[in-house]
Amino acid sequence: MTSAVRAEPPVAAEREYEFSARQELILTELARSVGRNSLTSFLIASLCFGLGAVVVSSNGAGALLASFPLALYISLAGFWSWKVQDQLKLITDSEGRDIEHLMQALQQLHRFYALKFWAAAAAAILLFALLLAPRAAGG
Q1: Is the dihedral of CA 116, 117, 122, 128 positive or negative?
Q2: What is the tens place of the pLDDT at every residue in 87-109?
Q3: Nearest CA to 107 among 87, 122, 124?
Q4: Is the separation of the CB atoms in 64 and 89 below 8 Å?
Q5: Rounded to an integer, what distance in angstroms lies between the CA atom of residue 69 and that of residue 59?
Q6: Ramachandran quadrant class, 33 (left: phi over 0; alpha: psi -120 to 50; beta: rest)
Q7: How many CB atoms lie within 10 A of CB 120?
Q8: CA distances from 27 to 4, 54, 96 (A)
Q9: Would the CA dihedral through 17, 21, 25, 28 be positive or negative?
Q10: In whole numbers, what is the pLDDT of the chain averaged over residues?
């Protein structure tokens, strides 16, 4: 009895793709905007950490607990925004690998929005718990 072996079709080499000059201009402008927003995020996160430290010195550690999660979230948002900007810049700086860099930028953008979703979900749960806590305590 002979067994038929199915041969896999040959994998076609990925075609190189290059965006037009106008498309690259749009991507360059987008990369600049994302970069500015990323730097703004880092600045705001630094202010949150700094203000939390100042308030801690006068009001105790509770203020740091309040500012730290916000500063961490803003820092992570800035980090992933920066990664998106890097990939967008690679699209315009490289030749023939535009689609690969675009897909990597989209992957980083997906991570950014996943972070936003889970942070908002956690904040909503925490807010809900804080609103119910006085009622549960009989207040």
Answers
A1: positive
A2: 999 998 988 889 999 999 999 89
A3: 87
A4: no
A5: 18
A6: alpha
A7: 11
A8: 50, 40, 15
A9: positive
A10: 82
For the segment 71-79, the average pLDDT, to the nearest whole number, is 88
Tokens at 86, concatenated: 């890097």
Distances (CA, A) of 65 to 9, 38, 53, 59, 130: 58, 24, 10, 12, 15
Distance from C-alpha of 80 to C-alpha of 65, rounded to nearest angstrom: 23
What does the pLDDT read at residue 25? 94
Query: Alpha helix (H) ranges present in 1-139?
Result: 21-59, 62-93, 98-136
CB 48 within 8 A of CB 70: yes
Q: Which residue has the tokens 């609103």?
A: 131
Please give the Cα distance from 100 to 120 (Å, whole number).
30
pTM: 0.70
Token readout for 138 is: 């009989």
